[in-house]
Design goal:
By secondary structure, this protein is an all-beta fold. It has one domain: 3 Solenoid (UDP N-Acetylglucosamine Acyltransferase, domain 1). The protein is 0% helix and 33% strand. The chain is built from no helices and 21 strands. The protein starts with 10 loop residues before the first strand and ends in an 8-residue tail after the last strand.
């Protein structure tokens, strides 16, 4: 059952928010996507246990739902554009930007002020370093950093099984 919020608490236009999700005041969920010529017609789905911190902005989808996965953490000031999919237990650090139609795999971490360009896929259990700019798709279980982001090493932690 979606939570109901007052206008002054959270701006939630096109959103379905699980009742166990925590949405901080001053976040914007479901604002129209910024894709010229494509109106937003799909809601943001915030799944169970997700946390969206203050001043985060998550846009509604233009061609598919924008999804914040189970137990995901969207930190202060981050921006998730239209049609983004954040997997289960993804962490998006403060001021990170995830471009339209990007996908972030389960258990991945996006560092402070990092940017994932539109249409990019970050695999499961990846780490993207602070300030990085992801210009290519990234396979599962890798660490990438820099501008543009380059492969640094494989992730030391095992990929959790669901």
């Amino acid at each position: 059952m979606p939570q109901q919020y007052g206008f002054h608490d959270v701006e939630a236009r096109w959103a379905q928010i699980d009742e166990s999700a925590h949405i901080s005041p001053m976040s914007v969920i479901g604002a129209p996507g910024e894709w010229l010529g494509k109106p937003s017609s799909h809601p943001v789905i915030v799944r169970a246990g997700a946390v969206v911190r203050e001043f985060a902005s998550i846009h509604a989808g233009c061609v598919r739902q924008t999804i914040v996965g189970e137990e995901a953490l969207v930190m202060t000031g981050s921006y998730e554009a239209h049609d983004v999919i954040l997997g289960r237990n993804v962490h998006v650090a403060p001021n990170a930007t995830i471009g339209g139609l990007a996908e972030i795999g389960d258990y991945s971490r996006i560092g402070l002020n990092a940017t994932v360009l539109p249409h990019r896929k970050v695999g499961r259990n990846c780490i993207i370093g602070a300030g990085s700019v992801v210009t290519h798709d990234i396979p599962d279980g890798q660490v990438w950093a820099g501008n543009p982001a380059t492969y640094r090493k494989d992730v030391d932690r095992p990929i959790p099984s669901d």
